[in-house]
Amino acid sequence: MSALIPSPTIIAHLALIFVVFNMLVMSAAFMVWLERKVCAWIQDRHGPNRVGFEGLLQPFADVFKLMMKEDLRPKAADAALFAIAPIISCITAFAAFSVVPFGTETTLFGLLDEPIPLQVTDVNVAVLVIFAIASMGVYGIVLAGWASNSKYSLLGGLRSAAQMISYELSYGMALAAVIMLAGSLSLREIVLNQSGYWFGVIPKWYVFLQPIGFFIFMTAGVAETNRAPFDFPEAEQELVAGYHTEYSSMSFALFFLAEYVNMVTVSAVATSLYLGGWLGPFLPDWLQWIYFLIKVFLILFFYVWMRWTLPRYRYDQLMEFGWKWLLPVSVVNLLATVVLVLWIG
Amino acid sequence: MDTIAFYIFAAIAILASLGVIGQGNPMHSVMLLIVSFGALAGLYILLQAPFTAVTQIIIYAGAIMVLFLFVVMLLNVPREEPVPVTAAGMLGPTAMKIGAVLSVVLAIEVVWGLSRLGPTWFSQDAEAAGVSSVSRIGNVLFTDHAFAFEATSILILVAMVGAVVIARREH
């Protein structure tokens, strides 16, 4: 009989997965609201302010509207791939977050016998898992572009594939530099390696050891998530809506959700790799996840700020920047890190 | 538990691989090949080799297949042309006889090879798990297999230079 009742640890893990999943969905909804509010603020408008307090319920109204719409599919589209593309996008967006740690180990106030880490799963090759899932994310967009059988979608999909291949290299090089500093592939260990202070005040975050690496990671991250100023796959003025031109209703909403969840994931990974994850002063251990949320929020705000401030690049400029500037700089950064690590030990 | 997972992954890998060659839409073939690679990665994880599994995804399912997809998309072939002539028309009688002999030999080899295999189990000890750790792989790669590693890298460099030369010939 006892075998049928799951142990408290398993229940806690399931609860953790449930909480993380819903937090990601809610953060995507909140990000849509934030995006529109910040955009309005930058353009000297009010933004959404009708549904709920200051328009906070606007994203839910939007989702409800999308759910009520008919799900259209072009007659010449490839039915199977057309249906599966938004699902791939969404799954990869959510899956990447599962290895991100967001707090110290906890027994939930003595509820559990063994402490569990605040993280869905702690694999010892976490950084590579994130890289692998990010490289799978491109399929959602490429397939959507191809399966729609529309020229705008196809161009968007092709651009996305080229862009992601180009920036993945720099992304990987930036990751490799951090891995060498930490001497571990586990995100939890990388975060724990950043605890402590230099001269008693400056936190030992890798952003201070790897400022160039942080810049490369964030630039490549923006390109990987297809956000402005690198939002070529869906450049409105040229491609209507790019790869999701032909999508409607909830399948469109899934792409939208995936984009925002991807942003949250990239921000969370950047926080863990460069900004010390959940580490911070003053608060007790069990409240440290608040620092994680604050840091992730700041990066997300930066994302939105950048989108409404910078104009889009030209496509050849994007490719030139990726291959001729970002990649060489990241190689040099990697070599410099090798020398530094070997020299200091 | 491991055995059930093994059969699931193995079945997915085999069915997806059959699908790759069994249907005419090149885009579907590419996607099925990715599914097959994913199932292989699952098998590596069962063999306590998470690093190999993740590299399998990054390199094969991630990098190489994106390239495949790119080419297929650019060619934009909705369906493969059905082969206009039958095998009998394409090959001469001698070639068909040799082909038949070769396939019989292959079938005998496969049956003989499979019959000699004993049952295998997934090892659960820490020693086996340690073999796949990243630092162990790195050490072995750069000491015991240093020559093979360097030779491969030169080979890849030559291929890259060759590709650039061929692509820029018109200029």
Determine the strand fraction of chain B and express it as a percent band: under 5%
Q: Gap between N and C termini of chain B, in Å? A: 60 Å
- What is the string of SSEs of chain B from the N terminus onward? HHHHHHHH
Q: Report Rg of chain B.
A: 21 Å
The gross shape of chain B turns out to be extended
Helical/strand content category of chain A: mainly alpha
Give the assembly state of these chains. heterodimer
Helix content of chain B: over 70%
Average pLDDT across residues of chain B?
80
Into which percent range does the helicity of residues of chain A fall? 55-70%
Pattern of helices and strands of chain A: HHHEEHHHEEHHHHHH
The number of distinct β-strands of chain A equals 4
Low-confidence stretches of chain A: none
Unreliable stretches of chain B? none
State the major sheet of chain A: 2 strands, antiparallel
Large-scale geometry of chain A: globular
The CATH topology label of the largest domain in chain B is Four Helix Bundle (Hemerythrin (Met), subunit A)
Largest interface: A-B, 28 and 23 residues
CATH architecture heading of the largest domain in chain B:
Up-down Bundle
CATH class of the largest domain in chain B: Mainly Alpha
Secondary-structure map:
The complex is a heterodimer of chains A (345) and B (171).
Chain A: H1 8-42, H2 58-68, H3 79-96, E1 103-106, E2 116-118, H4 126-147, H5 151-182, H6 187-192, E3 197-198, E4 202-203, H7 206-209, H8 211-224, H9 236-239, H10 249-274, H11 289-307, H12 315-344
Antiparallel strand pairs in A: 1-2, 3-4
Chain B: H1 2-22, H2 26-46, H3 50-75, H4 87-90, H5 93-116, H6 126-131, H7 134-142, H8 146-167
Helix pairs in contact in B: 1-2, 2-3
Give a description of the structure.
The complex is a heterodimer of chains A (345) and B (171). Chain A has 345 residues and is mainly alpha-helical. Helices cover 64% and strands 3% of the residues of chain A. Chain A contains 12 helices and 4 strands. A two-stranded antiparallel ribbon of chain A has the order 1-2. Chain A has a two-stranded antiparallel ribbon with strand order 3-4. The model of chain A has no long low-confidence stretch (mean pLDDT 82). Chain B folds into 3 domains: 1-80, NADH-ubiquinone/plastoquinone oxidoreductase chain 6, subunit NuoJ (Four Helix Bundle (Hemerythrin (Met), subunit A), Up-down Bundle); 82-118, no CATH class; 133-171. Chain B contains 8 helices and no strands. Chain B has helices at residues 2-22, 26-46, 50-75, 87-90, 93-116, 126-131, 134-142, 146-167. In chain B, α1 packs antiparallel against α2 (26-46) and α2 (26-46) runs antiparallel to α3. Chain B is extended, with a radius of gyration of 21 Å. The interface between A and B is medium-sized, with 28 and 23 residues.
